[in-house]
Amino acid sequence: MAAIMQKDLVAAGSDAAIVAALGRRSLVLVGMMGAGKSSIGRKLASRLGLPFVDADAEIELAAGMSISDIFAKHGEPYFRAGEARVIARLLDGGPQVLATGGGAFMNPETRAAVRAKAISLWLKAEYEVLLRRIKRRSDRPMLKTEDPAETLKQLLKEREPVYAEADLIVHSRDVPHETIIAEILDALAPRLAQSVAAKTATGDRVS
């Protein structure tokens, strides 16, 4: 009976019920640089009363240097290996809202770990929106090329089919963050309600 009530509460979008239904799982935000994973993720975590963790910040902390410096000194393969290790470790610390770097979800092992221990959400932004946003910053190692706009276009082409494997998709655009957060919760609630229902049907514990 309690599980059925919780399913109804989750479906209704209760923040507390959403957190309860997450259990120890994390909510992992994936998507391109400039999609708003960190800024939206931080406010979403605050709304749900969960910790917010930025995988890039954790990578810099572990390495003792900036991501730009890691790329410059060691190259992308070295960075990606470290990124995968850090994310695997972070996924054991849920529940939390975890923002990942733009290339993190491209790693098959990372995707498998996220699938097992989290709910993944692709913050999908259109090319023009991303281009406008990334022009405000010059610390994007993947875009330090002769033609950053074309590089961004190619990265989108390569990555979007993989991002589409995420559990949920919400469009990031130039609207108040509260609007995006509301849409994330609206998408998350029925997904978690299905999870509660499935566990109830098999006799598993909801948490």
Summarize, please.
The protein has 207 residues and is an alpha/beta fold. The chain has one domain (25-178): Rossmann fold.
What does this structure look like?
The longest helix is centred in the last third of the chain and has 26 residues, at 177-202. The chain has ten helices and five strands. The chain is an alpha/beta fold. The chain has helices at 2-11, 15-22, 37-48, 55-63, 67-74, 76-90, 108-117, 127-134, 148-163, 177-202, and strands at 26-30, 52-54, 97-99, 118-124, 168-171. It has a single domain, classed as P-loop containing nucleotide triphosphate hydrolases (Rossmann fold).
Keywords:
59% helix; 10 helices; single chain
Strand content: 5-15%
Report the helical percentage.
Answer: 55-70%
Largest sheet, in brief, is: 5 strands, parallel
Shape: globular
Strand pairing plus helix content: what structural class?
alpha/beta
Alpha-carbon distance between the two ends = 15 Å
Mean pLDDT, to the nearest integer, reads 87
Count every helix, treating DSSP H or I runs of 4 or more residues as helices. Answer: 10
Task: Tell me the domain tally.
Answer: 1
Strand order of the largest sheet: 2-3-1-4-5
